[in-house]
Amino acid sequence: MKILVIAPHPFFQERGTPIAVKLLIETLCGFGHNIDLLTYNEGSDINIKGLRVYRIPKIFFIKNIPIGFSRKKIIADIFLSFYLIYLILRNKYDVIHAVEESIFPAAFINILSRKKLIYDMDSSLADQLIEKKEFLRRYVKLLDMFERIAVKRADIVVPVCKYLAEKVKSYDPNKKTFILEDIAFENSDYNFEEENLRQKYNLQGVMGLYVGNLEHYQGINLLLESTAKINSSVSFSIVIIGGNQNDISKYKEVAGELNILNKVNFIGPRLLKKLPYYLSQADILLSPRIKGKNTPMKLYSYLASGKPVLATKIESHTQVIDDTCSKLVNPDPESFANGFQELIENEDLRKKIGEAGKSLAKKNYSHESYKMKLKNIYDQPELSF
Question: pTM for the complete prediction?
């Protein structure tokens, strides 16, 4: 097939949705399809056989486009929409694969172009906007209406998690819907100089590890406050990978006020290809997220590592994991501290949970399972002519 993939974000960057889109493109090209990718002007070029990249023009005042809703993103999406019209008029596509909010211009333009349309639903735009701007909650019915129209206009909807699949069904019970979860990062073939965290930072005892950005919803405050409450005879330390310098400075200040700087090590971002190596060094993997519906991508790599996962009992986590393959606790400092301390002091429990998580990841969230799910989607009669 000739497929147009629309990715409304900087591409490629090592963060959630761009990583998922890269995997999508690599897999589709591996099937023998030809892909045109329409994306923002920012990001690194990647070389994949069968891929051609189109970028919106560089806009001098639109730089460093952040994660989530922003004025910069709105302006970039306007340029993206006009470029989309140009590409559809110029090229003959079999399928338009619209990621996130690009479904809205794609669905509108497709009224005339009549291409097969896939809505790649990595998140709910209505939920995103309300989480970012609480005053928009009064307009939730209007926001849901736009999302409902997009769902109905698509031939197939591909949500990334169960929560979004249920939302799609609430909009259109008969819509062809296939959940396509993210997958665990596998060990790469890259050679790199090993960084032994224990030696480099002189860590003692059990090591807890958090990987990800340091946005508020990730629950770093919760993690720090719970750390201050742990009273264990077993020594432990925490390593936090990720975040920009401003966020790191802010949370270091919080850690200082809690008198736990000797326990917590903020080491900044690391290359994504090294993720399995860093996870392998930990004793406990931490996901203290306090809100959100989408499952964090890192959770699949956490599980695949074979190390026990300590996570908050919110829908982001519970739609993938339960108490048999993780340690789930309420999203408050007291509960997180109790769960963390239990894992610190019980090596057998850590091993049991870790093995169960690894088994789950191998069965449902491997590269092979992803390929089978994506092939099934593109083999659907709705995409044939």
Answer: 0.84
